[in-house]
Design goal:
two-stranded antiparallel sheet; 1 helix; flat
Length: 79
């Protein structure tokens, strides 16, 4: 596939009207604005690929209004 064909394919795939997408809101206060935040998990040396204790950052989103983190944003609730 040449560069022109790739560009045409990308343009075809991007025909999504974001205005039709559903807003995600805070489960606690119904606010629709969120701020990125980071949860850090600690991996045991027994399961770490390096054999050493490892810290793994996981990006989450907290509500701008009340700081709540929706359950669906937590790693244990993602599918």
């Amino acid at each position: 596939m040449n560069g022109n064909q790739q560009q045409q394919q990308q343009q075809q795939q991007l025909k999504v009207n974001i205005n039709e997408a559903e807003n995600v809101t805070c489960e606690e206060c119904d606010n629709k604005y969120f701020t990125p935040t980071v949860m850090i998990k600690k991996l045991s040396p027994l399961v770490s690929p390096t054999g050493e204790e490892t810290l793994v950052p996981i990006q989450l989103f907290k509500c701008n209004s009340c700081s709540h983190i929706n359950k669906g944003f937590l790693p244990e609730n993602r599918s």
